[in-house]
Predict the 3D structure of the following.
Amino acid sequence: MADRGGTLLVVRDVDGHVFGGFASTPWHVSPHYFGTGECFLFSASPAFRCWPWTGAPLPPSPLASRPSPLAFRPSLLDP
């Protein structure tokens, strides 16, 4: 997903709830949050709700102060 532009993520959990989000900018490793006012989160089931970007200051990213607990092999991110 790196360097691919906007991404829509849709998830259905084991209880059948559907939710996700839209990231308007390409995914990349960063010690800071990133995105634009086009980003949003949503819940589609059991009821539709949308949480748009607010522009409010965010707390520091957990990645800013310690190594990421997530690790990806670069080959998994390549097309």
Summary: Residues 74-77 form the longest helix (4 residues). Residues 68-79 have pLDDT under 50 and may be disordered. Strands lie at 7-12, 18-23, 40-45, 49-52.
